[in-house]
Design brief:
alpha+beta, two-stranded antiparallel sheet, globular
Length: 242
């Protein structure tokens, strides 16, 4: 029997990687899960947007994970149904935690590879809601999009620099997109060091709201510029590719 993704209890509980309370708003739409690992790309389209992963214990599922869902639900529901949603510093942190939790759960679906987020990082998230070092989270607005989409991509090149890697998860639910990026630098780089990464040539400062690390500023959703349709979603998911 496998052990919980976040502790050492038996993983006897199925976690809905796409929460049912959110997916219920997209009944009948196409959903896509995907993974990019190096040059290999995989996609799993489905007309039933449900992704159940047996990766957690009942205590984690029913306690702290449920608390994150309950805290995030009102904000996300407002973002996908309302034209304007104020996002204060507390709401930004809540959204960032939810996005990171979802990214960690989705990576548990790949049983063949070692999870990018370490056991220590997952335990720290469970115990203290501590986000992994060198992690950034953004929100974006999507227009002309009703689909549900998740793509996880491993970043890095062994030929260029084998000591640096990254993991990016893009989560799209109709008009709302969230993206999580974690960079894994060499061990001698302090956690407080600011790390930048090149992106594709698009006006991302106008498209994305920075949720984490929080600047302490009050933000407003939707964003000034939006991603349009499937092409826009793909631009977001691949913005860190060379």
């Amino acid at each position: 029997m496998s052990i919980c993704h976040f502790c050492y209890e038996p993983a006897r509980s199925n976690e809905d990687a796409w929460p049912l309370w959110l997916i219920s708003k997209f009944d009948g739409v196409q959903a896509i899960m995907g993974a990019d690992i190096g040059a290999k790309s995989q996609r799993w389209p489905t007309d039933t947007p449900r992704a159940r992963i047996r990766c957690v214990c009942k205590r984690c599922n029913n306690e702290w994970m449920s608390q994150i869902e309950s805290a995030t639900k009102p904000t996300i529901e407002q973002m996908i149904t309302s034209e304007a949603t104020p996002l204060g510093p507390e709401a930004q942190v809540v959204l960032a935690r939810w996005a990171v939790k979802t990214a960690m759960v989705f990576q548990a679906a790949d049983r063949l590879r070692e999870p990018f987020y370490s056991r220590a990082e997952r335990a720290a998230f469970k115990e203290r809601f501590e986000l992994p070092a060198h992690t950034s989270v953004w929100a974006a607005t999507c227009v002309e999009n009703r689909s549900v989409f998740t793509l996880a991509s491993v970043l890095g090149s062994e030929e260029f620099n084998p000591t640096v890697s990254g993991f990016v998860t893009s989560l799209v639910f109709g008009p709302l997109a969230l993206q999580v990026l974690t960079i894994r630098p060499p061990v001698e780089i302090p956690n407080t060091t600011r790390i930048t990464i090149e992106t594709s040539a698009n006006p991302w400062q106008e498209i994305l709201l920075p949720l984490w690390p929080s600047t302490g500023e009050h933000l407003s959703w939707p964003t000034r510029m939006a991603l349009r349709g499937e092409d826009g979603v793909n631009l977001l998911a691949t913005r860190f590719r060379p």
